[in-house]
Amino acid sequence: MNALAAATRPRGFGSERLLEVDPRRGVLAHHAFAALPALLTPGDLVVVNDAATLPSALRLTSHDAELRLAAREPSGVFIAVALGAGTFRLPTEERGQPPTFAVGERVASGALVGTITGVDSEDPRLVRVRFELDGAALWAALYAAGRAISYSYLEHAAELWDVNHRFASRPWAFETPSAALPITFEVLGGLRQRGVELGWLTHAAGLSSTGSASLDRRLPLPECYEIPDETVARVRAARARGGRVVAVGTTVVRALESSALEHGAPRAGIGEARLVIGPGFRPRVVDGLLTGMHEPSTSHFALLSAFAPRPLLETALAEASSRGYLQHEFGDACLILPR
Amino acid sequence: MSNANQERSSIETALITGASRGLGAALGRALAARGTRVVLVARGATELEAVAASIRERGGEAHALVADVGDKHAVHALAATASELVGPVELLVNNASELGPTPLRLLFDTDCEALERVLEVNVVGPFRLAKALGGSMVLRGRGTIVNLSSDAAVEPYARWGAYAASKAALDQLGRVLAVELAEHGVRVLSVDPGEMDTAMHRAALPTADPATLLAPETVAGRLVELLERGDAPSGSRIALSAGGSS
Question: From the centroid of its chain, how far is CA A194?
């Protein structure tokens, strides 16, 4: 199979394409992304991850290294991955070896100063760090010190306005929940006019790559999510009226299905998604999802296998590749949804 | 009812720019006194912190975020931090304004760069913040954006050109937004507070008699009432000195 080409820059308004995969009938269709509302049915529910993406790449001023924030515990302690020094142009796996941090060691990125409070026993690149500030001062220092995580295939380093989708709210995501990036206000208005309902939750999307093969195998790390009352009610109402629940992005799938697995049905409140979804997983809540283009080697692709047979997904990818679809954060979109 | 200030606000969360003094500070105090969790934004840290501290002393919740609303690099930090500290922002008040060079001068005596700065702070800055916070409002199907305007947006006063042009632009931006966001349940209002006894007014008209000017606290009270009533049509322009809408 030919590899999909990478989208090397943020896309122009409305330029993304949309590959529709219908697992029930086993058919594919090609659309402009703006066609999304027409592919849904009145009464369907579209659920978005409203997490804003943090500037989670911290170039340390205390060490010749980069810390990438990956998660935040309820205590306020961050989980981070240490990378060797280097710019985004160097793929993470080609970065040099980072220093090995010790518990109690002080780290700083400009005015953002913290202490290493834990080092992973299997891979010392995975650390815990507690910053000295909290509240407004913590966020001010973090936004001043950090940069959005960028990708080696991009022409220019990504800025926060590139990786934050239009509905971003609380800064919980460490990398962009990119499936929502093509959703314009025009499309959102189209969904409402079509009679499609909207729901939202916040899911702390973690890192897609750490530069360490052994750590990468542990991804995704447990990710925090919060589902509001309103979305729980809308999911219930959609299912009651026979509407489909469409997740925007794999993070929404993980949040809704993790909550359903734990409580029988999605429940309002904060939870931690430890669930790894793959072939054979039977979704209880989500009927289909809007996602990016993902190649078979990725954990994202494994998750998609829970929604469509692998051969159909492989055919879809082959067709996408031959038609010039683009992949990665600013790539084209795929809607996997039974008609 | 013993005291209107004891009534709980229906507005859970608000972000107010230009909140270190004048109307912005008064509005922050008035909302916080009714239980709204407020995020205060201004350039000057010391004054802003003092306003936030005075609110907290009275049992209110206030957070001070130091930023220049004319700085494009500040907006994501502002929007995300505000949402994290108080939850999704339900009310955005674009109150921060740049008067332009003082003493006020004729338009042809105004440097182009000075006009650019006024437009950056008074038009583009509010637009950026509205975009950064408005997406979440649109998703939730509710929220209010208030843009502070001026009668200078309507009347052609000599020597007010840069400020006047910026406020006229902000008014029209708000009117179009109101139309575009109507289906999403998000409201946009332009509010003309009238002539207030503020540092900005003194900079513009140093010889004005303060006795003829409105206290910012009075205007803030009227604005809170207007927002609590919630009946001003989206897209309308409300003159608070006259107590009616135009």
Answer: 27
Give per-residue pLDDT as tens, B163-189. Answer: 999 999 999 999 999 999 999 999 999
Structure confidence by residue, pLDDT tens digits, A238-265: 999 999 999 999 999 999 999 999 999 9
- Provide the whole-model pTM: 0.95
Of A236 and A339, which is predicted with more confidence?
A236
Cβ contact, residue pair B81, A192, below 8 Å = no
Residue A153 lies in a domain: no
pLDDT value for B6: 58
Is B142 in the A-facing interface, judged by CB distances under 8 Å? no
The answer as to whether A119 is a domain residue is: yes
Q: Does residue A72 share a domain with residue A163?
A: no
Which regions in chain B score pLDDT beneath 70?
A: 1-6, 242-246
Q: Is residue A184 part of a domain?
A: yes
Which value does ipTM take for this structure? 0.94
pLDDT score of A92: 81
Q: Which residues of A touch B87 (CB under 8 A)?
A: 170
The beta-carbon neighbor of B64 closest among A48, A52, A136 is A136
DSSP per-residue string spanning B71-108: -TTTHHHHHHHHHHHHSS--EEEE------SSS---GG
Residue A127 is part of which domain span?
A: 57-145
3-state SS class at B206: coil
Residues A233 and A305 in one domain: yes
Whether residues A196 and A234 share a domain: the answer is yes
* Segment (H or E) for A204: none
Domain-terminating residue out of A112, A145, A178: A145
- Among the candidates A116, A145, A174, a domain finishes at A145
Closest Cα partner for B213 from B224, B201, B221? B201
Tens of pLDDT along A24-82?
999 999 999 999 999 999 999 999 999 999 999 999 999 999 999 999 998 999 999 99
**Averaged pLDDT for residues A7-30:** 95
Residues with Cβ < 8 Å from B109, sequence gap 6 or more?
none
Same domain for A221 and A120, yes or no, is no
How big is the CA angle at A195 (ends A190 and A201), to the nearest 5 degrees?
80
* Same domain assignment for residues A266 and A180: yes
For chain B, which residues make up each domain, given as ranges? 4-245
Considering only CB atoms, which residues of chain A are within 8 Å of chain B?
48, 50, 52, 54, 135-136, 139-140, 143-144, 160-161, 164-171, 185, 188-189, 192-193, 198, 200, 230
Provide, as residue numbers in chain A, all residues whose Cβ is less than 8 Å from the Cβ of B64. Answer: 136
**Alpha carbon of B241 to those of A221, B9, B171, B191, B193: distances in Å?**
56, 23, 17, 10, 6
Residue A103 domain-assigned (yes or no): yes
pLDDT in tens, B34-49: 999 999 999 999 999 9
Q: What is the DSSP string of A29-46?
A: EEEEGGGHHHHS-TT-EE
Active-site residues of B, by number, are 163
Residue B1, pLDDT score = 35
Overall number of domains in chain A: 2
Mark whether A24 and A106 lie in a shared domain. no
**Residues A261, A267, A272, A278: is their CA dihedral positive or negative?**
positive
B4-245 CATH choice from 3.30.420.270, 3.90.470.20, 3.40.50.720, 3.20.20.80? 3.40.50.720
